[in-house]
Design brief:
With 214 residues, the chain is of the alpha/beta class. The chain is 35% helix and 24% strand. The protein contains 7 helices and 11 strands. The protein has helices spanning 12-23, 55-62, 79-96, 120-123, 126-141, 176-186, 206-211; strands at 3-7, 27-32, 44-48, 67-70, 101-105, 146-152, 154-156, 163-166, 173-175, 195-201, 204-205. The strands form 2 sheets. Strands 3-2-1-4-5-6-10-8-11 form a 9-stranded mixed beta sheet, sandwiched between helices. A two-stranded parallel ribbon has the order 7-9. Helix 1 packs across helix 6 and helix 3 packs parallel to helix 5 (126-141). The longest helix has 18 residues, at 79-96. The two termini are 23 Å apart.
């Protein structure tokens, strides 16, 4: 695997993720509404990506990539066309571009709406979680992509710990850098294909936690 396409390439998670991917020796194409905001690093190409465009237009931008990351988010301003249908378009585009590996940044308990009211942080972003619910469902049941879905808890700007807990549990927090590291590390990990990974702060080193996924 040599080249990855990052959807939402100018965001907080994307910026940390791109650094990790470059450190792993990969070439990155970062698609963003504002490509001028994409981090400038060697082996990073920024392209203007509009998720309102057709699937074919998006697929043409992905050509040559070996994997796709979806880490875009509208922050509540464009939930249907970015967080929901925009995500679906990128899945369909990946198939058109003959890309099998697809990694989705989602939200804790996005597939379990009965949990949302239990945690104030989730209740506050119910509309976002609804968008992620449908996007995650489509990825699992509507595609044949080799997907991994990462569902972190509340994102914070705190320093990375390099440690996590995977699986259900009390909703806490994750540093953005730890989430980015998990996203980067699952890419080559075949045991994470067709898995939904819920993550929180914890005591297990990230690489070990990923290796332990069954």
């Amino acid at each position: 695997m040599k080249k990855v396409f990052v959807v939402g390439g100018s965001g907080r998670v994307a910026t940390a993720l791109i650094k990790d991917l470059i450190d792993a020796g990969l070439e990155v194409v970062a698609g963003a509404r504002h490509p001028e905001k994409v981090i400038q690093e060697p082996n990073v190409t920024a392209v203007k990506l509009d998720l309102h465009n057709s699937t074919t237009e998006i697929a043409n931008q992905m050509l040559g990539a070996d994997a796709v990351y979806f880490v875009a988010g509208s922050r509540g301003r464009d939930l249907l066309q970015t967080d929901a249908m925009g995500a679906v378009k990128t899945m369909q585009a990946a198939k058109q571009a003959n890309i099998k590996r697809y990694i989705m940044l989602s939200s804790m308990y996005a597939l379990q709406p009965e949990k949302w009211h239990e945690y104030p942080a989730l209740a506050e972003i119910t509309d976002y979680n609804i968008a992620k619910f449908f996007a995650d469902h489509y990825l699992i049941h509507g595609t044949d992509l080799d997907y991994t879905i990462v569902q972190p808890a509340t994102l914070t700007e705190e320093p990375a710990t390099g440690k996590v807990t995977f699986g259900e549990g009390n909703d806490t927090t994750n540093s953005i850098d730890d989430v980015a590291m998990v996203l980067a590390k699952v890419l080559p990990a075949k045991n994470t294909i067709h898995k939904v990974i819920m993550m929180r702060n914890g005591d297990t080193p990230i690489e070990q936690a990923i290796n332990d996924i069954k």
